[in-house]
Amino acid sequence: MQITTKDKFDSIIYSSDLVSRDLSWIKFNERVFDQSVKENRSIFEKLKFLAITASNLDEFFMIRVGSLYNYLDYDKERVDYSGLREEPFKMKLMLECQDFHKSQQEHFQKNLLPNMEESGFRLSNVKNLTPEEQEYIKSYFTKAIYPMLTPMVYDGYRTFPILMNKLLVFGIVTLAPGEKKENRKLSFVQIPANIPRFFEVEREDVVIYIPIEEVIRENLISLFRNVNIESVNLFRITRNGDFTLEESEDMDANFLEEVKRKLNERKSGRVVRIEIEEGYSKWMINLLKERWNIQDDSIFKVDRRSMMDFTGLWQVIGNKRFKDKLPQMPAPVHPLSYPEEGTEDIFQVLKNRDILLHHPYNNIDSILELIEKAADDVNVMAIKMTIYRLASDSRITKALLRAAENGKHVSVLFEVKARFDEENNIREAKKLQKAGCFVIYGISNLKTHTKLMLIVKKDENRITRFVHLGSGNYNEDTARLYTDIGLLTTNEVLANDVSEFFNVITGHSIPDTYDSLITAPRDMRNQLISFIDQESENAKQGLPSGIFIKVNSLEDSEIIYALYRASQAGVKIKLIIRGICCLRPGRENLSENIEVLSIVGDYLEHSRIYHFHNNGKTRTYAGSADMMVRSFDKRLESLFRVDSPLLEKQLMNILSYNLRDNVNSYRMLEDGTYEAKVPAEGEPMFNIHREFFNLNVDDVMNVKLV
């Protein structure tokens, strides 16, 4: 039997005790794609998840493949967790991406396109419309599109144009009458980003979506008069968007200029992928390959019967005509620790007890209410917070502006290195700065990812500090879609820790220790490893032990090997890792006691919870940090301890429900692949994205983690 290159790669990869980060990410996107394949979902849900996988893949190529090219282009050495060096690893990665791309295309053509009309819409080209509709489209092209199109020819007299990242582009090969073939020219027509992806034709019983490229294709002759069009080629490029900021130590205006310069570089970064319609001009593709130094494995072919760039499907999904076709999630419920939400003064409530919020089952209004009340309360003296990503029309920015206008001290750290939100954060930060807020644009070479807020209030000669610590962004939009944890408290121990941490962020302070916070880059990795090692010692001594962790990603090798040691010592370890997992579970004599699950469904799982049995003296933490090298070494992160019996039980119950889920859950196998977890015969379905809406205190207080 002949051994293929793929077989050789797979043999090397399987022999490693660690799973490749990037290959693990591909498996994550496959789980998202599986949501689009599920038979019980409506076609609108299927389109939504297909669009998400396309957006995910765009970012993957920009950042992860872009990073790989940084090594390849500059001859830097890199050995992946899989054991493969740069070039072999790129070959393996592209094989996986090509297979995934084919799955997307086949699913769209075979399962989605044929079933659209029965749901009230369809995709079509211009030729299938009525004469009246065709005339209307031609008028639309002439008035609205034609003036925005710019043919850009490339020849010996004109430089090669800069084609924009992720835009649809026509490559048109032309020849003047009487000219020889060697004198043909290549022109580009880029479709502007501000033109809707589809032209919509509303009929009584159906909405017809005509891809904008088909509208332009029908009328390209108007841009190339009196020349012969040899071929018309639709393609789309993805550019390297990965960069590392070399910030100066003094955070002055030059830092912001550096961020802006790097953002502009994204527009001209090296090409890492070409998506192109089949039937393309070989002459053109060879020219592009040479120009951009790209190989065949990075060229992704799209069938003309399919569609390029599935992210455009959001236009269909978002049509108000189909609003009732998407599943409606239940309305948020009151937090178990704050049943009187909306009827009591939250400042008074927090003086007596802590509140744990679990979004989106509990809405974000309690946090917004606290900030908005603080902005107007004459007794509030100061508001401090970190901001990573904001909603498009943020109530938080408005409240902070009002607080500054009301004479309060407002300190805000805006992380301007929040990927793809840099421009929005710079814009919002400048608004606050102009209003008199103390604004920090990041810390040295670290990214501030921690989610903290501190409100200082004076009542009757007493100062009270109101604190919020969370796993998610202060963002009203994503709080409806992401599952996150937030703690509201006036606990003095936590308040002292948070005050100290803000002094680190806004000033020049190195605290001796924290009582209830674990922070990075200071000591988070070592602290977590010490907790894991303690479980190992307990197991060796025959004492009860157990580790239950829920995070987005597990990639740090030091943590992974600590978990392997604990498994070998007999500790039962259950990990709920939504995305990347570089740990290999179930390997003999290494990780037999480790189970890894991934939850992918209607909500994006974003909360991070760490629970250690500790011989009955439980340690339970939540916060913003995943178990990744970047989280421990390159970010300001925090995990906060939850001691309150009800609140700790709530966190334990979240872990327990995740382990019970048999609708959204996937089990990781030793080889790095995943299998869907399904209800056993006679077992009822348990969908956490529904069950958390029905939670009661008795359920929580009786929780047991096994």
From TrEMBL:
Co-factor(s): Mg(2+)
The organism's place on the tree of life at top rank: Bacteria
Domain Polyphosphate kinase C-terminal intervals: 345-509, 517-678
Domain Polyphosphate kinase N-terminal: 19-123
EC id: 2.7.4.1
UniProt-annotated catalytic positions: 449 (phosphohistidine intermediate)
InterPro entries: PP_kinase, PP_kinase_C_1, PP_kinase_middle, PP_kinase_middle_dom_sf, PPK_C_dom2, PPK_N_dom, PPK_N_dom_sf
UniProt domain Polyphosphate kinase middle: residue ranges: 132-315
Enzyme class, UniProt record, top EC level: transferase
A GO molecular-function annotation: polyphosphate kinase activity
UniProt cross-references to Gene3D superfamilies, sorted A to Z: Endonuclease Chain A, Polyphosphate kinase middle domain, Polyphosphate kinase N-terminal domain
PTM description: An intermediate of this reaction is the autophosphorylated ppk in which a phosphate is covalently linked to a histidine residue through a N-P bond.
Reaction(s) catalysed (UniProt annotation): [phosphate](n) + ATP = [phosphate](n+1) + ADP
Sequence positions that bind Mg(2+): 389, 419
Assigned keywords, A-Z: ATP-binding, Kinase, Magnesium, Metal-binding, Nucleotide-binding, Phosphoprotein, Transferase
Binding residues for ATP: 56, 482, 578, 606
Keyword 4Fe-4S attached: no
Nucleotide-binding recorded as keyword: yes
Function of the protein: Catalyzes the reversible transfer of the terminal phosphate of ATP to form a long-chain polyphosphate (polyP).
PANTHER family per record: POLYPHOSPHATE KINASE
HAMAP family according to UniProt: Polyphosphate_kinase (MF_00347)
Family assignment from sequence similarity: Belongs to the polyphosphate kinase 1 (PPK1) family.
UniProt name for this protein: Polyphosphate kinase
